[in-house]
């Protein structure tokens, strides 16, 4: 283990440098084929093309009448109904001047028709004819053959995240199965003599192992079911056994024991197992003592022992890595600008991630209120956070009223009520 003087000589990476260091060493995992019922949330690993024109023919976009625009340009005008066409029918007759056909939404246009008149703009007469009450322009309410997609068109690209709409597209092109990047196998290990497992007897002098479960939930939110390896105590031999098991996975997340104390054995033990460490400090708060290493294609993240620090490091460094492994193009949390309701403190030279709640002002713009507690040990501050405000490394704090970038956290895609004013 490096001495304190040696430690001071090792430079810390910026958050961007650390992200690049990780992502440059990662490629999407091998593809596997899954059914549509298992594809939601996965990333496509193949190009998908349309297998037909859609619509396959010119169709009506409304319930009403197929007609010739020239016949009703001087409406009101009466035409004779010669056919009734519903979706799935094949029209039998050719429209002649003075004729029309009753038609349903999605039904094919009969030959000779060049416009659609909505049912509400007509009046049925007793003799079976229909009166058109208003003129309708040529090509009104017609969906033309192939306007949605043409046979052979590329409709989905590799890396596309499969959302409900994507499932609809895949079903439209008759893809009952699709190739997606394999989900990574992720193991989670906590380290420390002070930790108390959920199954252990209550001990008021111990620290509950919240990190394993918070990390578990962050991984599960990505659609991955991780393996919890348990707690490795501060004994190098025991720790080595746990780490050997964890290195059999694609990704190993280790919480605690990665600092420079005399009883922090994680990094030297990883080194004896052949893991190459690429960095182990990042200029961020919380989460400065965070490390990343590799052994073959296995990725190892050594996260801080404080739960908030561990979770913030996951958001900034682990989450993009897991999404890259899963084949996604979009790797990072969405950010939005938000006005600060109060000043926040930060130290120049490091990026700070400030837990905050999100609301809107009278103009509809986003405003962010920093949580009262910003301690890296206060898990309640993370639970209550809608966003992580980013305080740039080049500034000493942010003033009230300043605009900050806010990373939207998982639960914050929801709100209590609809934006009713938007609907009126």
What features would you describe in this structure?
There is one protein chain. By secondary structure, the protein is α/β, with parallel strands linked by helices. Helix content is 18%, strand content 28%. It contains eight helices and 26 strands. It has helices at residues 4-9, 15-23, 164-172, 210-220, 236-246, 266-272, 307-325, 379-383; strands spanning 31-35, 48-49, 59-60, 64-67, 77-85, 99-103, 115-118, 122-124, 129-132, 142-143, 154-156, 177-181, 186-191, 195-196, 207-208, 227-232, 251-255, 276-279, 284-285, 291-295, 298-303, 335-340, 351-360, 366-370, 387-391, 403-408. Strands 7-4-6-5-9-8 form a six-stranded mixed β-sheet, with no helix packed on it. It has a six-stranded mixed β-sheet with strand order 16-13-17-21-20-18, with helices on both faces. Strand 8 and strand 9 form a beta hairpin. Mean pLDDT is 92; it is low at 1-8.
């Amino acid at each position: 283990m490096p001495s304190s003087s040696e430690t001071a000589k090792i430079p810390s990476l910026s958050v961007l440098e650390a992200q690049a260091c990780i992502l440059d060493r990662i490629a999407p995992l091998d593809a596997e084929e899954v059914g549509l019922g298992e594809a939601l949330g996965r990333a496509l690993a193949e190009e998908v093309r349309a297998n037909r024109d859609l619509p396959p023919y010119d169709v009506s976009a409304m319930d009403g009448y197929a007609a010739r625009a020239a016949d009703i340009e001087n409406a009101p005008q009466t035409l004779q109904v010669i056919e009734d066409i519903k979706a799935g029918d094949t029209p039998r007759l050719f429209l002649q001047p003075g004729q029309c056909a009753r038609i349903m939404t999605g039904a094919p246009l009969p030959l000779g028709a060049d416009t659609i008149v909505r049912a509400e703009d007509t009046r049925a007469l007793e003799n079976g004819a229909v009166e058109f009450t208003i003129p309708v322009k040529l090509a009104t309410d017609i969906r033309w053959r192939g306007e949605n997609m043409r046979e052979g068109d590329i409709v989905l690209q590799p890396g596309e995240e499969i959302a409900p709409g994507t499932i609809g597209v895949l079903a439209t092109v008759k893809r009952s199965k699709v190739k997606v990047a394999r989900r990574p196998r992720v193991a989670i290990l906590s380290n420390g003599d002070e930790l108390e497992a959920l199954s252990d007897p209550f001990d008021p002098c111990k620290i509950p192992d919240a990190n394993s479960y918070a990390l578990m939930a962050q991984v599960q939110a990505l659609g991955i079911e991780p393996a919890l390896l348990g707690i490795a105590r501060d004994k190098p031999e025991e720790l080595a056994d746990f780490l050997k098991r964890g290195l059999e996975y694609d990704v190993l997340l280790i919480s605690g024991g990665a600092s420079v104390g005399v009883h922090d054995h994680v990094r030297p033990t990883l080194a004896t197992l052949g893991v190459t460490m690429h960095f182990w400090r990042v200029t961020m708060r919380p989460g400065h003592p965070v490390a990343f290493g590799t052994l073959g294609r296995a990725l190892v993240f050594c996260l801080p022992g404080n739960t908030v620090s561990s979770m913030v490091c996951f958001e900034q460094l682990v989450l993009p890595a897991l999404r890259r492994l899963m084949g996604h193009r979009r790797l990072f949390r969405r950010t939005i600008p938000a006005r600060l309701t109060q000043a926040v403190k930060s130290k120049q030279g490091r990026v700070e991630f400030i837990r905050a709640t999100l609301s809107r002002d009278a103009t509809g713009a986003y405003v962010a209120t920093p949580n009262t507690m910003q301690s890296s040990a206060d898990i309640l501050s993370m639970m209550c956070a809608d966003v992580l405000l980013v305080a740039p490394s080049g500034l000493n704090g942010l003033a009230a009223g300043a605009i900050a970038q806010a990373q939207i956290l998982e639960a914050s895609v929801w709100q209590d009520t609809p934006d009713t004013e938007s609907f009126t």
